[in-house]
Design a protein that fits this description.
Length: 278
């Protein structure tokens, strides 16, 4: 599959062409922009800009307050001199700086934790939390981990895969025959990466309820179609020699893969609800 060329894509999603004289249309759009933004600008000027300017002017003048109001008696820096020598102002400044530093640090920590949790959930990982002083894990003895596209890969031998997943060597061999697990040859040895290990783990769980390796070919075909779709969208950028463009494409690939996985899960949930008669 091939992706749309940049020129064709620009023609499809580019700005709409204006009818008539270009210079007249541009002036008309500029006037409309000012008309639509004018109310917001007036409100901002009234409640923000004017009070700030007015406060600065007042602070640089000697103000005399009388029963009939107040009057400005000339330019002076005495207000700032009085402020800088005020212990009350220094205490307020120190408290403000302390409060700002504490709140910013706390908000940054909380926001980072929430972002990490959301990213893990979006990538398909499970969040495991200990309860009642014990480390309880999901049923089936496995914890789903998010395996990112652009992360470094760790390789395992067949014995290590068997030990970590509890699967039989015969099952792994069947998965290899049907192309569901794809080991590599490195230094004359057959090795499996972390993705292969998790595939074997899932297949082993399904085998306990009678799902054979040959029945998993439907997932292989579905994954191939999804990969072809993402390749059509991001293939040129992923093959780009520009590091920034390739980095951006990898980030987009990860995000789109999570979105596709979530969509497939939702469609499965809908069909299962129909199957259950809901």
């Amino acid at each position: 599959m091939t992706a749309l060329s940049p020129d064709i894509a620009d023609q499809i999603v580019g700005e709409p062409k204006l009818v008539g004289r270009p210079d007249v249309n541009r002036k008309r759009l500029a006037r409309m922009g000012w008309i639509f933004t004018a109310p917001a600008l007036i409100v901002i000027a009234a409640v923000t800009i004017f009070p700030i300017v007015y406060s600065i002017v007042m602070s640089l003048n000697k103000v005399n307050v009388t029963g009939n109001g107040f009057s400005l008696d000339g330019f002076t820096f005495s207000n700032y001199n009085l402020l800088l020598h005020s212990s009350l102002w220094r205490d307020a400044l120190i408290f403000t700086l302390y409060y700002t530093a504490v709140t910013v640090v706390v908000e940054l920590i909380i926001g980072t934790c929430i972002a990490l949790v959301l990213e893990r959930l979006a990538a398909g990982g499970d969040i495991v939390t200990p309860t009642s002083g014990s480390d309880k894990r999901p049923s089936g003895g496995s914890v789903r981990r998010a395996i990112l596209v652009n992360t470094s890969r760790a390789y395992l031998s067949l014995d290590e895969v068997v030990e970590e997943t509890g699967a039989r060597e015969e099952l792994i061999a069947e998965l290899e025959n049907f192309g569901i697990v794809q080991p590599e040859k490195r230094e004359g040895k057959t090795v499996y990466d972390e993705t292969d290990r998790e595939v074997v783990r899932s297949a082993n769980e399904l085998s306990r309820v009678g799902v054979a390796a040959r029945n998993l070919r439907v997932f292989r075909s579905s994954a191939d179609r999804e990969a072809n779709l993402l390749e059509a969208l991001l293939g040129p950028s992923l093959r780009s020699r520009n590091p920034d463009r390739r980095k951006e494409a990898l980030e987009s690939l990860e995000s789109l893969a999570a979105t596709v996985s979530h969509l497939k899960h939702l469609l499965l949930v809908r069909d299962l609800r129909r199957l259950a008669g809901d």
